Amino acid sequence: MKRLLALYLCLTAFQLSVAAADTRPNIVFVLVDDQRNTSLGCAGHPQIKTPAIDELARQGIRFENAFVQTPICMASRANLFTGLTTTTHGYHGNPGNPVSKADLQSSFPTLLRTAGYRTAFYGKQHVKWKKGVNGMKEMFDAHEVLHRNPYLKQMPDGSLRHVDEIIGDKSVAFVESQTKEAPFFLYMSFNISHAEDSDRRPGFHYQWPAEEDGLFEDVEPLRPNLDDPKYYAAAPEFLKHSLNRERFFWGYDTPEKYRVNLRAIYRMLAGMDRIVSRVNSALKEKGLNENTIVVYSADNGYYMGDRGFQGKWSHFDQSLHVPLVIYDPRMKSENRGRVIDDAVTSLDIPATILDLAGVPVPPKYQGVSLKPFIDGESPKNWRTDFYCEHHSGNAKLPRWFGVRDDRYTYANYYKDGVELLYDREVDPTEFVNVAGDPEYSDTLTRLREKALKYKQQYSRK
């Protein structure tokens, strides 16, 4: 009798655990390539059309001050997987140290999978793992790496299909295969809106899906906010000889080239938004939308001609500042549609996803869960600064580390022996470098020491 009672209690506990697991939310993470914070309709852009993301922001929350800590695709994506800074995990790209097995095992997709989530990834990957380690197989039940170069892929029938449309196809199929027996995590990693580096022809340099053909043809794209030549003239001399300047001539150096390429970027983002809408529709048709969280962000910002630059990589706001939208169908109505001004970083995303899934966040993670904001709370003692860095081995990409706080931007370009300091309270466009101004000597010393302290804190000995 005692044995039967014990068996009954075990079965009951198991059934309760399954029932609890059934209520855990599904999570879709949408990561866009090379998108700055202002390039969304909900962020106030008057020309770019992103109705699906705008609706997620209206029903969820949008973070006005979201930043990456390493503004380059490879390292930023490794930061997201591992929850660690580039200084800690070591993979800065070109070539960089591959991500270790230990950091792979504590990556947020691995932890979700271990906790019983069905995990899938489709799209751009761009992270190297330690030799003999297959990171994607460790993290995901299903995955397919889908890179651009070229954007248009030949299909079995001979037709061409945009690679991100294929990401949408795979994502929809994954959603359609799900049941309510276990939660799932879907990572949609877009190639949009990265330029096609190997094809610099206007209209091909930025390649949009066919369904967006003709969109924005009657729109005269807005000129960059920092279009005045004075901003290029004020840039550090080494940046004038970097890839930021070189690639400006790939896409923006004539009015017609700028016009054609900006319309192309608008079409790319419209296509991305439509593909996200396809997945949202699949969720609704499966009856999964009421229990599926959507997180939307980008791997880095992007110069769209500002300062006479293209690309990312450097310390200015256009390079670091990204969109971040989180939609949770369980949110209370009074918490929806809010815009959060607190500074958050990409390292907060993996911690947030784990927290929303009810999975413990590893102590080694260097970000903080944003769940309190989702719940309508105002966290006490929230960060007032964060560490940022770029260490790519590409000779045309200067290396730096620094700190951004609620007023100042500090960057140490250590290979060039140059320190930069901007007071955004009086100089929001980061035009005047005040590192040599005696009035700012104490601030320079304080932020220099803060950046070095962060660097030491995050370094592995």
Describe the structure.
The structure is a single chain. The chain has helices at 2-22, 51-59, 73-82, 86-89, 101-105, 108-114, 135-139, 163-176, 229-234, 243-251, 255-285, 317-320, 348-357, 371-374, 441-458, and strands at residues 26-32, 61-63, 66-67, 118-123, 142-145, 152-154, 160-162, 184-189, 292-298, 303-304, 310-311, 321-322, 324-327, 338-340, 344-345, 385-390, 400-405, 408-413, 418-423. With 461 residues, the chain is an alpha/beta fold. It folds into 2 domains: 26-384, Alkaline Phosphatase, subunit A (3-Layer(aba) Sandwich); 399-461, Arylsulfatase, C-terminal domain, CATH 3.30.1120.10. The chain has an 8-stranded mixed β-sheet, with helices on both faces. Strands 16-17-18-19 form a 4-stranded antiparallel β-sheet, with helices on one face. The longest helix is centred in the middle third of the chain and has 31 residues, at 255-285. Mean pLDDT is 93; it is low at 1-21. InterPro entries: Alkaline_phosphatase_core_sf, Sulfatase_N. Its EC number is 3.1.6.1. It holds the Pfam family Sulfatase. It is an enzyme of class 3 (hydrolase).
Fold blueprint:
Elements: H1 2-22, E1 26-32, H2 51-59, E2 61-63, E3 66-67, H3 73-82, H4 86-89, H5 101-105, H6 108-114, E4 118-123, H7 135-139, E5 142-145, E6 152-154, E7 160-162, H8 163-176, E8 184-189, H9 229-234, H10 243-251, H11 255-285, E9 292-298, E10 303-304, E11 310-311, H12 317-320, E12 321-322, E13 324-327, E14 338-340, E15 344-345, H13 348-357, H14 371-374, E16 385-390, E17 400-405, E18 408-413, E19 418-423, H15 441-458
Parallel strand pairs: 1-8, 1-9, 2-14, 3-15, 4-5, 4-8
Antiparallel strand pairs: 2-13, 3-12, 6-7, 9-13, 10-11, 16-17, 17-18, 18-19
Helix pairs in contact: 8-11
Domain Sulfatase N-terminal: 25-359
Signal peptide: 1-20
Protein name: Arylsulfatase
